[in-house]
Design a protein that fits this description.
Rossmann fold; ten-stranded mixed β-sheet; alpha/beta; globular; 29% helix; 246 residues; 8 helices; single chain; KANL3/Tex30 alpha/beta hydrolase-like domain-containing protein
Length: 246
């Protein structure tokens, strides 16, 4: 990986990787954070060039590192987004997978990782805009980064852990996303063990800006992280992008 290490915002080319059945490609590189963590990053590229108006790149933030969260969990979604014409980026947060550094218990240090990758995407890939997507504990971490990068135009949460116990760890992140004026979509299973539908609705009452919710009947928290839901998540994300102001 040493040869791949590039600073966030530098113009060094990522290394090419595997091709998808539709001609989409995966490349990988390393992005360095402001405090020196080196993050392993994968870029999933559509087979055909993207129309300027549709050129919204998607940065996906994986579940809780301490429970084994890594970027590989998001590969199905990232490939699906590339097949639908969007450049998608996954990465291992500090202390996960091939990334250096140490994971934090509350996800506070990992916000810097999300910011570094979003800035690298904005400066190097130069899309029209960036959409941030967070899965499980990746949702509060991504939510804290939304207003730290101007090019981020919206946010999608998959299974945001708003519940009482999870809030002990991630409660510090709630205000940032609830106060953000940027459009937000919260996707959750009705059988989520960390957050009840009522807890989600109560939290979102105070949210600023446009707030959409999509409830998946009968789905549990960890179930929605599995590959069986990838295609549905891709549909929801792509339709949300289409609804954003051009």
């Amino acid at each position: 990986y040493g040869a791949d290490q590039i600073e966030a915002g530098s113009s060094s080319a990522p290394r090419s990787g595997l091709a998808g059945a539709d001609g989409s490609r995966m490349e990988w590189t390393t992005v360095e954070t402001a405090d020196g963590a080196k993050l392993s990053v994968r870029l999933f590229k559509p087979a055909a060039p993207v129309e300027d108006a549709e050129d919204v790149a998607v940065v996906l933030v994986h579940p809780y590192t301490i429970l084994g969260g890594v970027q590989g969990l998001l590969r199905g979604m990232a490939q699906g987004l590339a097949e639908r014409g969007h450049r998608a980026v996954t990465f291992d947060m500090r202390g996960a997978g091939r990334s250096t550094g140490r994971a934090s218990l509350t996800g506070s240090s990992e916000v810097r990782d999300v910011v570094a990758v979003c800035r690298w995407v904005a400066d190097t890939l130069k899309p029209r805009a960036v959409l941030l997507v967070g899965s499980s504990a990746g949702a509060p971490i991504a939510g804290s980064a939304v207003d730290k990068v101007d090019q981020v135009v919206g946010y999608v949460s998959i299974g945001y852990p708003f519940g009482l116990l999870a809030s002990i760890l991630f409660g510090r992140h709630h205000d940032a996303i609830l106060k953000s004026e940027k459009p937000k979509l919260f996707i959750m299973g009705t059988k989520d063990g960390f957050t009840s539908v009522k807890q989600l609705q109560n939290k979102l009452k105070s949210a600023a800006g446009r707030v959409d919710t999509h409830l998946i009947e009968g789905a549990g928290h960890f179930q929605m992280e599995g590959p069986a839901f990838d295609a549905q998540m891709v549909d929801l994300i792509v339709n949300f992008i289409k609804s954003l102001p051009k």
